[in-house]
Amino acid sequence: HYLSRFIYSDPLNDIFVLRIPMFVLKGSFIMKTLVLDTSTPYLVMGILQHDHCLGSSVRFLERQHAEQLLPTLEALLKQTQSALEDIQEIIFSHGPGSFTGIRLALTMVKTLGLTQTIDVYAIPSLYFLALPNHKVVATMDARGHRYYVAMMDGYHMIQAPHILDEATLEAWLIEHPEWKKRSIESAFHEPKTLFEAAYHAKQHFPKVTSLGTLVPMYLKDIQ
Fold first, then answer.
1. CA dihedral in degrees (145, 142, 3, 197; nearest 10)?
2. How many CA atoms lie within 13 A of 119 on its CB side?
3. For each of the chain's 223 residues, which pLDDT tens digit applies?
4. Cα–Cα distance between 151 and 156 in angstroms, integer?
5. Strand pairing partners for 183?
6. By the 8 A CB rule, do 162 and 218 touch?
């Protein structure tokens, strides 16, 4: 696989190691934002300049994130005539969702953060579902008739991600029709909104000050 030249798993330490090839390190020094989400079966990646999305990729990969992570980044850099030196900040999802997928994103973010001067923002995956001027109940399938759920009023998260069973969620939505249910799966058909929400996340989540202590948001209390 293409990515096997750059990434490998260390089973003894349960980590991924990412080698960034030098040919993607030469840039024009135009500062841009990399947006990344690997918390679901989709690989979501985009390059923004301010709030304008220069190029993006939203693909259903199931379990092929590792093979496609760097090729997708390389393709987007070429598409947007960018290089890693142009990336001033990274906004990425640290969960909840697929633990393996989130670990891959963490590996890439930590590698870039340590090799480049880049600001990093870790946001919940459900924040990607925020919409301006809408009250949104963001949901993601957590299996077993349960959902990861977060509540947002516009770009303000008013209830952090937690787990609800399907019956409780549906009953609550019936009692509160002013709230719009938005699943992360359906939102992938509206990629523009995903990147707009990511851009606005910077105002509501602090910049990561220590990459070494950055860990996944992994909600494990599913019964």
1. 120
2. 10
3. 434 444 445 544 455 555 555 444 444 556 899 999 999 989 999 999 988 999 999 988 877 788 889 999 999 999 999 988 899 999 999 999 988 899 999 999 998 888 888 999 999 999 999 999 999 999 999 989 999 999 999 999 999 999 999 999 999 999 999 999 999 878 888 888 999 999 999 899 999 999 888 889 888 654 4
4. 9
5. 139
6. no
Here the tokens at position 184 are 């992360």
- Asked if 112 and 208 touch (Cβ cutoff 8 Å), the reply is no
CB 67 within 8 A of CB 1: yes
Tally of CA atoms within 13 A in the half-sphere of 34 that contains its CB: 28
Check if the beta carbon of residue 114 is closer than 8 Å to that of residue 24.
Answer: no
Whole-number Å distance between alpha carbons of 44 and 95 = 13
Angle at CA 170, nearest 5°, toward 42 and 43? 5
In Å, how far from its chain's centre is CA 136?
18
Buried b (16+ CB within 10 A) or exposed e, 69-101: bbebbeebbeebebbbbbbbbbbbbbbbbbeeb
